Amino acid sequence: MEEPKLRKDAVRNRERLLAAGRAVFAERGLDATLNDVAHRAGVGVGTAYRRFANKEELIDAIHIQQVEELERILTTALAEPDPWSGLVFYLEHSLAIQAKDRGMAQVLSGQFAQPRRYDWGRDRLAPLLNKVADRAREAGLLRDDVTGTDLILLQVALTTIASTTPNSIDANEPGDISQLYRRYLWIVLDGLRPDRDTTTLLPVPPLTTQQTHTLLGSASHE
């Protein structure tokens, strides 16, 4: 049976809630409430609950958008003539959006998403990600023992760095360190190559000892 079409104002409110939900969850993670989202969207709490029965239903709807976004990145990666460039493109771009979106990183690491929806996303993305890895491996550009599942877990590890890294962690040593995860991405990329004569110039400098202690100390008290 076909679902009844929503009125134009209901459609607008749903889209506002989706956009607000993506923004709130990106900033605060998925512990934020549906009330928080309604406030950001500028609609009443009752309106929010008419469009989404609960927070989980909103997260599922946002997850569909996230999967479609990653699917586009993977499709672009597979269109790259050079398989290694395609692999790097995928990791850089998928990590960039997850670094800015705490909620997305939590869902993709297996947290909060309903099993049915998580399985749907996996079935959409996993075959494409496996192709990205297979192309690079078959071209002799990726280690023979690395698969698409390795790339997934490496992303989870790297987004953990991104999610615990504020823009600045020491007033005495100012500087934007929100890109710190990219340093470790490029260390990982060198490790994924089967043969190399040199190492890649890392795009982000290392933290000082004090910055590292500050960062890890603040993360342990969250």
From TrEMBL:
The record's listing under Pfam families reads: TetR_C_43, TetR_N
Q: Which residues form the signal peptide?
A: none
Q: Which UniProt keywords apply?
A: DNA-binding, Transcription, Transcription regulation
Q: Which residues form the DNA-binding region?
A: 33-52
> What domain of life?
Bacteria
Domain HTH tetR-type, by residue range, is 11-70
Q: Which InterPro entries match?
A: DNA-bd_HTH_TetR-type_CS, Homeodomain-like_sf, HTH-type_TetR-like_transc_reg, HTH_TetR, Tet_transcr_reg_TetR-rel_C_sf, TetR_SbtR-like_C
The name this protein carries in UniProt is Helix-turn-helix domain-containing protein
Q: Which organism is it from?
A: Nesterenkonia aerolata
